Amino acid sequence: MTKKSTKQKSLGPKIIGTLLAMSIIPLVIIMFINSKVMTNILQKRLDIEAKNNVENVYQTLDSIQDAVLGAVKATAQLPELGKPVNKPMEELKIKNALELVGKTNPNITEIYFLPNDHDLISSVDVEASFAEMSVRPWYKAAMDNPNDYNWSKPQRDKITGDTVLMISKAIYSNGKIVGVLSADMSFPRVNNMIKKSKIGETGRVVMMSDEGKILASPQNKELNENVQEHQVYKNIMESGNSGFVKDKTGNAYFKKNKHGLIVSSFLEPNELNNNKMAILQKSLIMIIIWSAIAIFVALVVTREVIKMARLMVDSFGRASMGDMTVKIGVLRQADENSILRKIPFIKNRIGNGEIDENGNEIHRIVSAFNRMIEGFSRLIEGIQMESDNLAKMAVDLGEISKQTNSATEEVSETITGIAQATSSQAVDAENTVSEMNNLGEAVEGILNKANEMNDAAAITTELNVENSRLMVNVHENWEIERVKLGELAESMETMNLDIQNINKIIKVITDLSAQTNLLALNASIEAARAGEAGKGFAVVAEEVRKLAEQSANSTKDIENIIETIQTKSQEIVTQVSESYEGGLKQTEIIDGAIESSKEVAAKVDVFVNQITEIDALVEHVKAEKDTVLFAVENISASTQENSAGTEEVSANAEEILATMEEFATNISELEKTTEILNLQVNSFKLK
Known about the structure:
Mean pLDDT: 75
Structural class: alpha+beta
Shape: flat
Organism: Vagococcus silagei
CATH architecture of the domain at 78-187: 2-Layer Sandwich
Largest sheet: 6 strands, antiparallel
CATH topology of the domain at 78-187: Beta-Lactamase
Subcellular location: Cell membrane
Number of strands: 11
CATH class of the domain at 78-187: Alpha Beta
Order of helices and strands: HHEEHHEEEEHEEHEEEHHHH
Radius of gyration: 71 Å
InterPro entries: dCache_1 (IPR033479), MCPsignal_dom (IPR004089), Sensor-like_sf (IPR029151)
Domain Methyl-accepting transducer: 400-657
CATH superfamily of the domain at 78-187: PAS domain
Transmembrane segments: 12-33, 283-302
Low-confidence stretches: 1-5
């Protein structure tokens, strides 16, 4: 049978791969970061250049428009424009003034005036009729907005190709429009600036209308091109009056003016790509050079490491075979023809291969290996000596184990008896705990009922106190009413006496009426005797008699009424007296009820105190029950613990017995092992 050979692995590829990774990966990361940083820096530089170029063009454009506007405003104030143009001399004056304005402002290509119903007057020799010019957009804009300076949309001149803006203004004279002044403004200076503009390597500045038509650009092929479908134009129109917008080639800076002109920057797609490629090429060259250096260093380091590793593997192999004389004195033989040793710096670093205990990690590992071999040698010598002693001790332990085994059997039997008695005690203790728990439940029930009685007694006490308070209030109120009733009875008695006295007064009145009637009768008789002289007196006497009879009749009526009142008054006095006597009886009943309430309250207080005492006694019983239960539970727990401990001791005793039997067996095995150990220890080569 042939043994299958396995290929041994080496650290060389791993060391080379690790060194290459440690060298190249940081370079790649640095290259990536550097590329991003350089791209950002380049983008910022391009943004700054774009903004500066656009701002310069825009400011120039703005200043030109302001200058042209100022010139047109000044021209509109000329008195010649407000006069009728009826003679050639008047037309010539206007033409000369317009030519002067055109010459003094190079940005005005033509300035012209169209009087009402007159041919065009221009700073250049252009002839046109009123009918032809009055339909032009600049004329219509001025007539529609006569008080404003009207700017036209930017457009390219068909002859010169320059961008042209027209400004027009209606001219007034005596409150009436006499004509329209207009000027054509071009941007030669702006066009030159745009043609010379440069952003980076391929960038440029263009001027376009808000309708997307390119009016000025360094590239002639772009002139008059419509870019409405381009994304950058759409982004500009969706943005404000100025700022950066995103483009597939980078950022584009733009600025709009109020006359429909847009100045913007543009970059070619390869602007950033060319710079990125240049950075990548330089980075790749650095990676290749550094990789070559790293591979060379890795090969050299790997060769030296593998040599030292093979030497250490060989030494460990000899030690594993029992050769304790192996020691590493030199890691490698000094090779004077080595390329590395010809370099002074490296020669001093790698040395001549001798072991230095304070050297690098490899030297310290080898030193530790040498010390380990020396320690193993001393250890094996000690093992050989102790092995002989161990053989002697094994024989003695065999005798001792036999004696211990016999004693352990006796102890095990005794502990088994104790365990059975303890188990019986544990059962009794558990029954006692159960009975105490039942007693505790009964006491708890009594305590709950006592608490309920206590609560009910407290409520009864509160109700009785409230009832007593109400009875006292009733008694006090009734006493007040009884006193008032007594006073009323006295008043009624007094009133009854006063009513009885009225009869005396009525009797006096009756007597007076009778006497008056008698006197009147006597007066009538005397008057009759007197004859004619007594007729007047007789009439008076008759009237007095009639009054006396009426008074007597009224007195009888009053007397009847008084008798009725006296009867009713007497009845009321009787009823009030009876009510007063009933009140006295009611007072006695209320006093009795109050006394009864007080007695009930006293009995309830006694009842509450007794319930409180019962509650305290039940609490005391409960506390004593808890104490007894706790003690019984402790006894039960202790008994169970003792039982468990006894059983455990019994089990341990049996286990010790088994262990002693096993120990005896092991002693026998130990004797055999000692013999084998002596043979193995003697196989080591120590000297």
